[in-house]
Design brief:
single chain; about 80 residues; Multidrug-efflux Transporter Regulator, Chain: A, Domain 2; 3-stranded antiparallel sheet; 4 helices; about 60% helix
Length: about 80
């Protein structure tokens, strides 16, 4: 699937601003370094997916928000 086709699908499903974000956007949203983000993906700690085999990692903003809230709640307990 081409990059433009993947973007068109994301826009159709989630609107122009989209709910699907890139690695760089996820790093900014979570406030972590890229290496930390990839470690969390590798450890299957962070909800992430690829649009195609071998493609770039993508994230749903709502899933990251939920994950972050769970982590913050765990630290408060």
């Amino acid at each position: 699937m081409s990059r433009n086709a993947a973007r068109a699908i994301a826009v159709a499903e989630h609107g122009e601003n989209g709910d699907v974000i890139s690695v760089a956007e996820a790093c900014g949203f979570l406030g972590v370094h890229r290496n930390t983000l990839y470690r969390l993906i590798r450890e299957e700690e962070l909800p992430a997916f690829r649009m195609s085999r071998g493609g770039r990692w993508r994230f749903r903003r709502a899933h990251l928000r939920d994950w972050l809230e769970d982590k913050q709640g765990a630290h408060r307990s």
